[in-house]
Amino acid sequence: xxxxxxxxxxxxxxxxxxxxxxxxxxxxxxxxxxxxxxxxxxxxxxxxxxxxxxxxxxxxxxxxxxxxxxxxxxxxxxxxxxxxxxxxxxxxxxxxxxxxxxxxxxxxxxxxxxxxxxxxxxxxxxxxxxxxxxxxxxxxxxxxxxxxxxxxxxxxxxxxxxxxxxxxxxxxxxxxxxxxxxxxxxxxxxxxxxxxxxxxxxxxxxxxxxxxxxxxxxxxxxxxxxxxxxxxxxxxxxxxxxxxxxxxxxxxxxxxxxxxxxxxxxxxxxxxxxxxxxxxxxxxxxxxxxxxxxxxxxxxxxxxxxxxxxxxxxxxxxxxxxxxxxxxxxxxxxxxxxxxxxxxxxxxxxxxxxxxxxxxxxxxxxxxxxxxxxxxxxxxxxxxxxxxxxxxxxxxxxxxxxxxxxxxxxxxxxxxxxxxxxxxxxxxxxxxxxxxxxxxxxxxxxxxxxxxxxxxxxxxxxxxxxxx
Length: 468
Hints:
Blueprint: H1 18-53, H2 67-91, H3 97-116, H4 121-149, H5 155-176, H6 182-200, H7 207-212, H8 216-225, H9 232-240, H10 249-258, H11 260-278, H12 281-286, H13 288-295, H14 301-316, H15 318-322, H16 328-354, H17 366-382, H18 385-392, H19 399-451, H20 460-467
């Protein structure tokens, strides 16, 4: 069957050296990932900030916040985060991926201006929602964009790199925020947010967006710059049957549920994300300092959180190193089992503490060790691979909407857990709470084994064929 003629057939295709194209992709992702630093910063911000807001000497507020207000400071991030992806889902197909990235970056700038100018608790609540909104837009758009511009042989590496950079942002919070003023924490993030917005002006629009809009020449030029000229036919043929059709946002949303490959993509990405949240990661990040205080650990909470941050950063390098060698699935399986064991040990510590075991006095170091093992294991696979999978799933015309739906449903679970964490501790105790988190990791292991496909070395079109 003869291939249809496209407009790009009539333009000159300039040769681009492979090493040059890879460097270009890395440079683009570096600009994109500055935003992930802000995302990580926003996620970890509440852990050292809550003690500041509960202390008259360090709080910018007229009076210390209550425990209930502290819970909201941690969890309100998810309210904005659940709205943000839908902004991406609606606008990314309408105005493009790049404008959505800029919108997310500008919202992050505004949120940290609010930190600098905080006068009352209502402003703290508002800035957390705004931070979540910027986080939601940035996270989803980054995954969609990087998945569309990356070459197949390095797509997994580039997608998992977003997780590494996010962890760097959280580490900055843990290492710096406890030792600076509340206002200074805003200036730090504001500087990074401005650098992110400036960097975004230098990245190209996604070639998939150009193809979706019938701008074949622009799609061809962009793919050529990315060193992916051989993918031109595949990208354009995806939308060839839609030529002349009017775009329907409602139809795109409906296709998430009516097209089998999209339906399977949503099932896999949401379930993985929900199990990721019920492993307790958000709770530990938001309430890291509180957890060490509850455990009565002999390790200083501020030092413990720094150690955990460094552990997360180091272990997150494992996934990009091996994801294109061993594949996604094996990393996930090993990571999930190790997470389950470490959370079980942490639950055991809380149990011994509850029954007043004399052994507790000699193992005050155990909570830190258990959390180090947990985060090392988590970031080596469970914390990074699901995000990469989100960037690889769904058909191109619903990729932004599908990713938005999967991630917001995931964050809804996270919101529920962070809001109810103190109640879980009061009602169930630390032991049962962390055993529940460990049980989620075991469920995730079996789900991954039976349902998650291996996407290593597959093009986005080939992945969709696997899901059909």
